[in-house]
Amino acid sequence: TTFTxxxxxxxxxxxxxxxxxxxxFNTFFTAEExxxxxxxxxxxxxDSLSDYRYTETQLSFITPLYTHTAFGKKDSTDVNTFHLxxxxxxxxxxxxxxxxxxxxxxxxxxISLRALYTFNSKFVLFYDASPFxxxxxxLGQKISKxxxxxxxxxxxxxHPGFSLRAGFTRTFRLGNKHVLxxxxxxxxxxxxxxxxxxxxxxxxxxVIQPSPQLSISAYSRAYGNLFFISxxxxxxxxxxxxxxxxxxxxANGLRIDFRANSNFSCFASAGFSQNRILLxxxxxxxxxxxxxxxxxxxxGRISEPALFVHAGISVRFGKAKTATGNYLMYD
Length: 331
Hints:
Layout: E1 22-30, E2 33-37, H1 43-49, E3 51-71, E4 79-97, E5 105-119, E6 123-138, E7 141-159, E8 162-171, E9 178-187, E10 194-200, E11 203-211, E12 214-230, E13 242-261, E14 264-280, H2 282-288, E15 298-302, E16 306-316
Antiparallel strand pairs: 1-3, 1-16, 2-3, 2-15, 3-4, 4-5, 5-6, 6-7, 7-8, 8-9, 9-10, 10-11, 11-12, 12-13, 13-14, 14-15, 14-16
């Protein structure tokens, strides 16, 4: 019997996607450490802020929208595949300053479209477009502003144990408005016992995989964002009703990933982080004639590395094709 796609029973329908829909949840927090001003004129603001700690909670979802697969001229292992993915995420962030009587509750909510094209058994083109909204909830006043981030990367897998990548990114991850080159490398097979991978300006990791279910990594990861916040606590003495808060962190630690089965995985990590706080005001930037990047009127950092803990889970559902011959998509 021949079934058309619309009338085939679920057990006989063609599975087209290599990537399964999934939900992820993770939380990250640091210990409290005193702030120290990087610049001398920041001392008065530093006294107002005092000690600092950081917490972040994130819920995200990813699902494939469209997948097209074509076989190359070599054989059935030469697979050219286009993936279009949709993601959504909601992040709650609380930078806690012990010197402030009331704290700012920040959020970042957004979606993204990701296009991934693997071809000629060697190359990957990746593009991500991410509109999102940042918000501050302070004493019942909510400030929200839209932002847009994007990344484009070209990856060349020289052979299964070595790949190179380069591209550009428009990001707020470093606590300012940056357009930066991005480049990276991988040494070792992704399915091997050990490999190293790095991509500037995001992360670097040495990964050890004792078994298919378990991996242990030593890593360094940049995190942060740029938020609009209320100036009702008078952090800047001008007439600005709003400021921008830039937060930049670098987490260095050990991480354990456990894949219980094809539907569930989890991770836990701990280590030490460095954090910098930058505050910007429109009137200050106008006064100093800032062009391009924002100029902070306050630049502070924690005086000592802060202990952090990071943990999360992922739950996958639905069906997917096996990735045999499509090794590139994991690169």
